């Protein structure tokens, strides 16, 4: 290519890099703001999005998750956008390094998820089951999250209804949550059907059912990360030639 064509290509990629990372920066700011809102006023968030996000709300703290993701996106967007605008080799290298670390972490997490699914279930059970016993019926937001989850996913507890044995709720009311029963107000969990199943296995089944969609999204994110690293390295190397 002629010097003019190379400069035009460099300028085009630079502008695309700025716009792409500006979008990432704005998305990060939005997620950070939503995360702070959820942390400050989680009940309002639950009332609006509870039915849509109940499967997620039960196993993660949405507020902290959104804050962390938003902060990471803000950093990535700033490094990529400002680094391309100022043609800073230092910022472009930092952008490349951050994206590379995230890419490696995602691969490692995927491998761990595939290999140690049973271990993850054990750890999750050890963390969530005590919370059910202690906070269900005490913490209003926590209780509402689980009520919506059990209603939407048609399940009871994390593993099954026995998660509520010796819990604050059972000791106080003398029975299990009504979401664990059939239509009639029984004193014991339904002897048949999905209500004997815990929410964790139900959600895993839903994830397996939609594994193709999840895999496609993951592949798309990985492709974007690889493209972002390639573009940042192209700009970084081209700066030496200017």
From TrEMBL:
Interacts with SLC19A2. Interacts with NTRK1/TRKA. It comes from Tichodroma muraria. It comes from the Eukaryota. InterPro entries: Tetraspanin/Peripherin, Tetraspanin_animals, Tetraspanin_CS, Tetraspanin_EC2_sf. One of its GO terms (cellular component) is plasma membrane. It is a multi-pass membrane protein. The gene is Tspan1. Keywords: Glycoprotein, Lysosome, Membrane, Transmembrane, Transmembrane helix. This is Tetraspanin. The chain crosses the membrane at residues 12-38, 58-79, 91-116, 213-237. Its main location: membrane. It holds the Pfam family Tetraspanin. Structural component of specialized membrane microdomains known as tetraspanin-enriched microdomains (TERMs), which act as platforms for receptor clustering and signaling. Participates thereby in diverse biological functions such as cell signal transduction, adhesion, migration and protein trafficking. Regulates neuronal differentiation in response to NGF by facilitating NGF-mediated activation of NTRK1/TRKA receptor tyrosine kinase and subsequent downstream signaling pathways. Plays a role in the inhibition of TNFalpha-induced apoptosis. It is found in: Lysosome membrane; Membrane. Belongs to the tetraspanin (TM4SF) family.
